[in-house]
Amino acid sequence: MQFDSNPAARTLDAHQRLNEFYGVQAIYGRADPMHELIGTILSHRTTHANEVTAYRTMRERFPTWEQVRDAPLPDLIDAIRTANYPEVKAPYIQNLLAHLFRETGAANIDFLNDLSTEDAMKWLTDLPGIGLKTATLLLLFNFQKPVLPVDTHVHRVTQRLGLIGPKVSAEKAHALLLSYLPPDAGVLFNFHKHFYWHGQRICTWYTPKCPDCVLRDTCDHYQSGGKTALSSTPVRKARTG
Ligand code: SF4
User: Fold this and answer.
1) Which residues form a coiled coil (predicted)?
2) What are the pLDDT digits (tens) for 54-102?
3) Is the four-CA dihedral 81, 83, 84, 86 of positive or negative sign?
């Protein structure tokens, strides 16, 4: 099939198809933005179950954010040890809390609701340890701001489809994909969720289930027989020995 080479049109087409496949969702997120913020730091490179256990243990041992901030570092590392890299994440969390208390007098970020999207993004990404992905997840899920989190699944699927170029990084994909989509939090939430689920369930890392994919007739990776080199999917190293 000959498909539209315009990436904005192709992005909207893929979005519509996944809307039909997965169903349109209302925006949802954790009720407490501080939980979302700290939970997202804990969630890096670990499973959801491990993140949940780490967060729960941390709050049981240190019920207030002041206690988390002031905890001896080894104790906090131990409390979040089910999340990978606890020795990296614990100082991030303490630095972040110290910064929040210094700047705002409390561990409360509800005021982001009243900031413009640009100002809220800048404020968050200026925090120690908060990158584009964490900031966009928080602003979209908790404050319904029109931003687009690009995680490893969204990056891989959009790159395989050819909506972004083969060398475009996840950071650059954020602005690129955003420019193809309407600045509407509901649309962006569904785009993120559906591409995330698609990457988890169908367009998986090593063996995408292309015969089951509703996007295969418009997919560059499928049309090329999986031969395109992509920055989101490094080639698996051959086993030695
Ligand atoms: S056709 Fe295959 S490679 Fe392309 S998006 Fe679908 S599952 Fe991924």
Assistant:
1) none
2) 999 999 999 999 999 999 999 999 999 999 999 999 999 999 999 999 9
3) negative
Domain boundary among the residues 143, 164, 194 is at 143
Substitution candidate for ligand 1 out of 156, 213, 218, 233 with most atoms within 8 A of CB: 213
- Whether residue 29 contacts residue 141, with contact meaning beta carbons closer than 8 Å, is answered with yes
Cα(84)–Cα(218) distance, integer angstroms = 37
Mutate to test the pocket of ligand 1, among 157, 195, 212 (most ligand atoms within 8 A of CB): 157
Where in the sequence is the domain holding 209, given as residue range(s)? 7-26+149-223
What are the tens digits of pLDDT across the range 162-189? 999 999 999 999 999 999 999 999 999 9
Domain end among 127, 143, 159: 143
- Is pTM beyond 0.90 here? no
- What mean pLDDT comes out for the span 48-58? 95
User: Looking at the structure, do residues 155 and 111 belong to the same domain, yes or no?
Assistant: no
Helices 117-125 & 132-143, crossing angle to 10 degrees? 140
Q: Are residues 37 and 134 in the same domain?
A: yes
